[in-house]
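Translate sequence into structure tokens.
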Amino acid sequence: MTTSQELLQEAVARRIVTARPELAARFDLLTAEGLLAAQREITRAAQDAKVLVVCVLRDFGLPAWVRATCEFALRVDRSAAADWRRDFTRTVFVAGNPANLKDRFSFGHVADDGSAAWQGPAPAEESTSLRRLLKLFDGSAELPTRPSVAVRVPAGHEPQERAPVRRELHVATAGVTIAECLVHLNHLLVEAVFDDIICPGDELVVRQAPWLPASGSPYAALRAGGTPDHPDRLRVYAALTEEIHDA
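Result follows.
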């Protein structure tokens, strides 16, 4: 993967500026040191997020989860999306069967196959009982590589500002657990929906490989971060390409 550190730093800095411009103003995001300091501050603040989402997972299949995550994000209204984004789209993934919880908890969206359900975005205290009831989702296994598969984002009922497009969704698997993949992809997908990069009817070709391709279509959005051993050295965990046009 040859994407430059400067490009990755710009992507991370842009995300911070979009979500919390007042936080971004406290750090020099043009330097690796300033960016790392800002990320540490964000990590500390995440534990006290005011607004968050809880995702209940019965089981995990990447294509189905990608589709359902996009559908959920499309249902979030603009005001709630802005509040959630200020807390960097903080999401807690817990293990449970949504079908067994529907009489006790209300969900904003349930996947068509019942494999996942979402509560929020809402003030953190509103999901306390759900988070206390269920354990964190165990995603300690490494994310496998799989053949590419196309996922269609469900079409909405409202008229769209643009026609559906086709993009590739690249997911890096080398040294990445399922739990880490959930976090990285969740941020990438929901924020891409909020930025109108992903819209109803779009097709996402999900490609799971150890590393993102060294060359290919330009990226419309990417998710970059450090590693435990090298927090100041960014790598790409997932990316959405620009529109793909058939030759």
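Note: The mean pLDDT is 92.
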